Amino acid sequence: MSIRASVRALSRYHFTPRASTVKLDQNESPSDLPEALKAEAVTRLSASSWQRYPELHPQTLERAIARRHDWDPEGVVVANGSNVLLQALVIAAGIGQSVVTVTPTFPVYAMQAQLLGGDLVEVPLGPGFRLPGAELAAALRGRRGVAFVANPAAPTGNLHSREELAPLLAAIDDDWLLVLDEAYADFARSDHLDLVARQPQLVSVRTFSKAFGLAGVRVGYLLAHPEVAVEVRKALLPFSLSSLQAAVALTVLDHPAYVEGRVALAVRERDRLFQALTELPGVVPLPSATNFLLFRVERPDQVYAGLLERGVAIRRQDHLPGLDGYLRVTAGALDENDAFLRALREVLEPEVVGG
Ligand SMILES: Cc1ncc(COP(=O)(O)O)c(C=O)c1O
């Protein structure tokens, strides 16, 4: 087979779908778009000409996103999910150069570096999963390419402060693009867009999959300096965002109060879950600025399997460096979170709950 060695060496993206009634394993929104909004999106789609190609790059959507963030529309790039933009950034700035990130983090940065041929440098997170700013700055020295930092972090869920970022920001020069993956920024109610506005080597990557509740539709975007955006667009295929995707994203952007309501609910449920987990013996949750929580247990394998037996799917993270014993749960709907907590109590204390 003529498959390249770097492709063969790569392990596949890990996700095992579980037929569970309570699905808290992919950091999705727990509820679907209301019928009225779906109908609005369908009307918009119906009004478009299906025999025609969509816009070369979805300018109408780019402009709507620009208005949401008070950003230059020329600096907005949209693609089929933010994963595709992460790939485009590696194509634009990583191939034949370096890809620097932390570990553990969202696996797509490293996978794309290995797949496409970027020299991958992974710097371990510091104590308490803090950003190793000085170590990252050292990793940039003598190299050029693209650096990825998820903020809020994934899968650890913490928000990196300005102080943590400072040494890295100081080290970013024209040899580097620093990508802040802000997929979960809506739940943190804070982002670093003002830094991106000031420093043209910075990029913020966003997604419609989390706060907007559109993971199935596949839309992501980035906010950057127009000079960077124009280069990243070259790494995307022409006409790749369908009219369907654009129609749905535009519809939801027309309803900011709906999105805000979803975010408020997720934050409330996340905080309620956190509190409940702190009260369980042997369970240590980490504070989170996202719509999910990481928590440590003594026997993650048993807890995970016990929850699955009870119809609750969460995600194991204990195979990742520095995450021994950790599991991850998405803040779902109120009844789903209750079902998760009930099942977890049963798994942890079967003799007490069983009487
Ligand atoms: C940190 C982070 N970035 C990017 C993504 C990918 O999002 P999308 O659905 O837009 O491809 C995810 C999805 O879980 C994520 O956790």
Can you walk through the features of this model?
The longest helix is centred in the C-terminal third of the chain and has 23 residues, at 256-278. The chain starts with a helix and ends with a helix. The protein has helices at 5-9, 35-46, 59-69, 82-93, 108-116, 133-140, 162-171, 185-188, 193-198, 226-234, 243-253, 256-278, 300-309, 334-348, 350-353; strands spanning 22-23, 76-79, 98-103, 119-124, 145-150, 176-181, 202-207, 220-223, 284-285, 292-296, 312-313, 315-316, 326-330. Helix 6 (133-140) packs parallel to helix 7 (162-171). The strands form 3 sheets. The chain has a 7-stranded mixed sheet, with helices on both faces. The protein has a 4-stranded antiparallel sheet with strand order 9-10-13-12, with helices on one face. The model has no long low-confidence stretch (mean pLDDT 95). It has 2 domains: 5-30 and 257-347, Aspartate Aminotransferase, domain 1; 49-254, Aspartate Aminotransferase, domain 2 (3-Layer(aba) Sandwich). The chain has 355 residues and is an alpha/beta fold. The protein contains 15 helices and 13 strands. Helices cover 42% and strands 16% of the residues. A hairpin with a 6-residue loop joins strand 9 (284-285) and strand 10 (292-296). Pyridoxal-5'-phosphate binds at residues 27, 81-83, 106, 150, 154, 181, 183, 207, 209, 215, 220.
In short:
The chain has 355 residues and is α/β, with parallel strands linked by helices.
Question: What is the number of domains?
Answer: 2
Assembly status: single chain
Coarse structural class? alpha/beta
Bound molecules: pyridoxal-5'-phosphate
Task: List the uncertain runs.
Answer: none
Radius of gyration: 21 Å
**Percent of sequence in beta strands:** 15-25%
State the order of secondary-structure elements, H for helix, E for strand.
HEHHEHEHEHEHEHHEEHHHEEHEEEHH
| CATH topology grouping of the largest domain | Aspartate Aminotransferase, domain 2
Mean pLDDT score? 95
The CATH superfamily label of the largest domain reads: Type I PLP-dependent aspartate aminotransferase-like (Major domain)
The CATH architecture of the largest domain would be 3-Layer(aba) Sandwich
Shape: globular
Helix count, per DSSP? Answer: 15
Largest sheet: 7 strands, mixed
